[in-house]
Amino acid sequence: MRTGFRTGVAGILLLVISGDLPADELVTLDTRPGVMQSFLLLEPPGEVQGVVILFPGHEGVVRFVNTGPGGYRLEHEGGGFTVREETRETYRRNGLAVALVAPPSDRADGMDTAFRSSGEHLEDVRRIIHYLKDRFGQNPYLHGHCRSSLSPASITTGLENEGIAGMILSSARSRGRHGAVMDYRSGVISVPVLLVQHREDPCKGTPYSNLNRVKDFYEQSSGKVDVMRITGGDTAPRGTRPCQGGAHSFRGLEEKTAEAITAWILGKQFDADIE
Fold this sequence. Notes:
The chain is α/β, with parallel strands linked by helices.
């Protein structure tokens, strides 16, 4: 393996790591005056079948640590299913290009609900969407987990579906002080929606009992709202908060869940009940 630099779209500097897999790239875009937005881009070994943007959970804090020729190590703070290596590598292995998003430079300490609902966040992600569409010729799917489910919900609503292929909400926020995906304008989202939920989710903001409420909300405007239910796995909590690890993040079933989500993205038959 070797490392090097090359200039990408619009003169963006990309760190390239070559090896058996296509190079992973740390892409940084100028999105707002004085603000930089970075994401780690993983390409599949063959033809790109689809594109997905992953939003880390909790407050979205993730750092990409360059480990040299071997690639990147991720440091994160409670990012859940969308930051798991098993998730992104399963997507990549099955033909998806994956963009794992970090907070913008002016929100390095994290993104609260107000920012996820803001025009600034919309503009940052809109630039990522345009970059990926220019590069791969496909509209991306937006995938958020727990508190980061607010990002796809807010952005897809704000953009009125433009440039977005679909939306995946795993352990979607449906109540509590951090808000809910149903807080955004109803009757707007028309792209396909996938809801992924563990039956034993202990997080108070993402209860399984609210799954049908979330489904009903999106069925007001989208003609395709699918549900994926998860049972079992390693349900033991991680850390001191119920929204860490365990059932909330589908621990032990990440690859199987990501395989089913990939099938849904590609329009194939998918496993709606995972255990």
